[in-house]
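Researcher: Batch entry, complex prediction.
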Amino acid sequence: MADQPTKYLLAEKDIPTTWYNIQADLPQPLPAVLHPGTQQPIGPADLAPLFPMGLIEQEVSTKRDIDIPGEVIDIYRLWRPSPLYRAHRLEKALGTPARIYYNYEGSSPSGSHKSNTSVPQAYYNKVEGVKRITTETGAGQWGSALAMACQFFGIDCKVFMVKVSYEQKPYRKAMMEMFGAQVSASPSNETECGRAILAKDPKCNGSLGIAISEAVELAVQDPNTKYALGSVLNHVLMHQTIVGIETMQKFKLAGDWPDIIVACTGGGSNFAGIAFPFIGSKLRGESKEARVIAVEPAACPSLTKGKLTYDFGDTGHLTPLVKMHTLGSTFIPPGIHAGGLRYHGMGPLVSHLVHLGEVEPVAVPQLEIFQAAVQFARAEGIIPAPEPSHALAIAIREALKCKEEGKSRAILFNLCGHGHFDMQAYTDYFAGKLRDYEYPAEEVAMALAGLPNVAA
Amino acid sequence: MADQPTKYLLAEKDIPTTWYNIQADLPQPLPAVLHPGTQQPIGPADLAPLFPMGLIEQEVSTKRDIDIPGEVIDIYRLWRPSPLYRAHRLEKALGTPARIYYNYEGSSPSGSHKSNTSVPQAYYNKVEGVKRITTETGAGQWGSALAMACQFFGIDCKVFMVKVSYEQKPYRKAMMEMFGAQVSASPSNETECGRAILAKDPKCNGSLGIAISEAVELAVQDPNTKYALGSVLNHVLMHQTIVGIETMQKFKLAGDWPDIIVACTGGGSNFAGIAFPFIGSKLRGESKEARVIAVEPAACPSLTKGKLTYDFGDTGHLTPLVKMHTLGSTFIPPGIHAGGLRYHGMGPLVSHLVHLGEVEPVAVPQLEIFQAAVQFARAEGIIPAPEPSHALAIAIREALKCKEEGKSRAILFNLCGHGHFDMQAYTDYFAGKLRDYEYPAEEVAMALAGLPNVAA
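Model: Structure tokens for the complex:
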């Protein structure tokens, strides 16, 4: 029998009682968020029609440790603490001296890390008497997680699901309905924005940008309705830091520490969750330096090919302007299967840390991630979602580098969700129907040319 | 915050090192298995063309504790020990004074308890040099679990999947292929049996009985190929007892003990897994008496409406004769969504314990189980498979009885798998397309009339 454990587990009493706010430790503060009309920094009141004040306060706070409410911790107990695995069997399959670890968030009921933020978001809305939350979803992980959280707190949930996903992923829709959410294909006839788009193009497939516009439109019309976002914003990234705080504890149990931390990034919530507590600890001089790698799809490479500048968060230009790596807010990414990484921009905090040199970005092509996912499943059993398979592919590259160099480094990646609702993607992969996309340089250049002209 | 834990967790070092063989504690021994030609008890040599000797020895052993090989425990570490949950939120939703507990086996990579036996089965085949294992699968849980185990041990895996499921559940097929298995729709052109059936009826939908015949036919033709079964047999039920042994340890952690133990039963492996260690402990006078309830579908009620007699294990009459509760081996159960419970017979050990009065059988209709599943998901987050939702429905009935009587009993049920690959069933339920089936009394009477005439 193995002399080393396969899993490192904490007890329920070890669930962290605070989230970590990296804004407290930044060597340079985050650039201001601007009002698109005045180009002046926005204040909490500008966000109040969309979010409850409890979340707006978190969005702008620079306090390091933010208390997690007891009601939120009680729900976290359903799946937290999450397990840290040592990938003994993958190491053997690769023949590498590397020590590969993965933290697994797929055992949350909605199947991904998204529940870590959907629950506090629903909670703060509940506290302020909100009756309904609207949101958008692409692949469906976020919509499922928010639907579950709203059900737990007795809040109505309305999800606009990008029409192409609505049709391709009926079982994600079924999961949201299981949790009592109302799901509409976007563009829909339920909003002015949706009706206007359908009038022009009745067959429009939808996009996250359009779905955001629909969700926001409903929220601003009704004082009892607010809007929720599953990534990008500071408070969302902060809720996910429970993952990294726990993982640091689990590494202490293992008597080890990562040399390399790898996570995929679309809007940044998964990446921030695992990486920010480690980066903060290093910034404060409390732990040794680790390479931190943010992995994005080669078909949608905002960090590696985009521009760090002010842009809108959505395609419809309803949001404030944020400084981030962007491919241009009118850019529509190619149809890769990792729907959670198909975003034109990047969470401002992640962009800022790349800019500061704390994070190393890298892009991987689609076929490499599916190859990595199959190798992983055959060694470790768990079928990963396409999104975290981006991180896995880079973890494998680094493990093979260790083999070449004869060095045993500790490599950590975050397996943020399972692939049970992505089996069509794997079916297409095995049938040879998937391909790598050329980087859409022309479309990006056009989208970047249309960026708002910001003096700041 | 809650003052009581939500989960009771053991450490990896607490994984049991022996399985529990209830044959050691039976007040009356299990009736012999008979050769269909001679009607004489069969011996190990009769089973050798199908199974490796390591498993045949377990099938007939009356030793109480059977060692789990270290190589098997090393793989169990990927998901074991499994968590025991206290269903605080469901209790609150029901307003019951009952203490409801559920043991969750859905966090195994294949999504159900089936991996607990697929891994040792593949292991004992590997030890004896077997190169290929054939099997049948209906809904796909067993096929997925065996595919994963064969991949881990480097054995080829060939799965005959009932054609109607093959077409309705392409994602279970994709999961098996992810683990490297070869999957064919049954009846297939690959066996004499399949070809004969297709010659008569080219559109035949298939059945478990036919798929078993195809898998057995390939196994007996080739000395390097063996056959594996996911339930019914004594050794399969014994491998699952790791669930109940762990659960007894977890109840000690909780400082509680079940008054009522509920599990669904098709062939009996899930039921045996959770219940046999508790029943054995009570038979030996080591722990207090608990009511043990075996739950089956009203549409396929072998324990509550079948006959306890000798019958074949398969529709094609290739297996030995076993004494069990049966609806007749030619009976084809109605198309309920709980594919794992659509079996004409019952594991002989489960039948024997019902006969001895140690187990109380009950049947539930389909709509009640889906209603229970939705109520559970909305309270606890986890979406259950239709099979364990049978147990859940009875746990809810018992919890409501506690409420009526003002009594606080501890109710344990085994949540043997998640419903991520059953979302079509939930979609149909929400669309009002599911119905309860009348008990097919005439078909059962016809099937029972055709039972073999056994003198024993």
